[in-house]
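User: Predict the complex.
Assistant: Input components as received:
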Amino acid sequence: MQSMDRARLRSALTRLDRKDRDVIVYRYLLEFSEAETADALQCPVGTVKSRSSRALARLRGTLGEVRSDG
Amino acid sequence: MAESLDHDAEMISALKSLGESLDASPPSDVVSNVRAAIDAEAKRRRKRRWRGAAAVAATASTLLIPGVRTAVAHRFGIGGVKVHEISPAETVPPVGTAFALGQRVDLDEARSAVDYHVLVAPGPDLPRPTVYLRDNGIVSFVYPATSTLPPSPGTDVGLIITEFSGDSRDIIEKFLNNTTDVEQLTVNGAHALWITRGDHFVFFINDKNQDVDVPGHIAGNTLLWVEGDVTIRLEGQISQADAVRIAESMS
C-alpha cells in the first residue's frame, strides 16, 4: 500500500464518528474476531456485524471526500 | 490504488495493511498486547502496563480504560503528528532523568544534519540553550531555568523546544483522558494545541513512513504547532501567553 493511500485512509478514519472508527480499528486494523470486537466494545456480536458493514460504507464515502479535498 | 478502495474487500485489505504498518514500532506485537489487555479486562480489569504503544494499540487501549473511553476521539485537523494521551499505567521516563535527547551539538551541526529549517527562539528573554540532535532528525533546545523561566519539577530545566519534520498529509489526533486539558489556538496564524496537565507524547511520520514516538520530556505545559514542514513542541512551566510569544518569535 502506498504511503499516500495510507495517509488518505488514516485521514478518512479520523473523520468517521466514534462508533464507526472503533469497530473498524478493532475488526480490520487489529484484526480482532467479531466476538473479540464485541467484547472490546461491550456489545452483541450482531451489533458488531451490522456496525462493521455500516462503518465500511461510511469509510468508503469518507474516502471520496478525502480525495476531493486532497 | 485509490479507486480500488471502493471495493470492500480491497478496502479491508488496505485497512489491514495500515494496521500492520502501525504495528511496526515497538512493542513488536501490538495485537497480542491489546488482546492481552482485553483478557485482563475480562479478568477483573487487572492493571495493565504498556510501553510506547503504537498508534492503533494506543487507541484500543485507551478505549478499554473505564472513564477514559468517554473522552476519546477529540480530533484536530493540522500537521503531521498525533498527540496521544497516555494512561497512568504506561511507562514514561521519570521527569528529569531520561531526556534521551541525543547527541549534544552546536546549532550549525544540527542545521546541517537535518533536511528542514531549524527554527531558533531569539534572546534576550531566553538564556543560551544547549542543542541536541537525535539520529532520527529530532532537534532539541534545552534552556536552563532562570528567574523568569521557572524550572520544571525535579529538574533545572526551564524550557525544552523540540523540532522535527512532520508529514503534513497526516492529521493531528488527540486522545484525551480526564487529566489533560487541550486548547486550540494559533501561532503565527497556524493551528496549534496548548496542552496542560497530564503526560502526553507525540507521534510523527518519518521519511520511511514509520511512526516515531516523541515522548514529552518534562512536566509542565506544552505548546504544539506546525511551521511549514516542521512540527515544533515547546514544553515548560510557562504561561500560554509567554509560550505563544516565544513561538511567534522563532525564526
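Helices of chain A lie at 3-15, 18-29, 34-41, 45-69.
Let me know if you want any component modeled separately.
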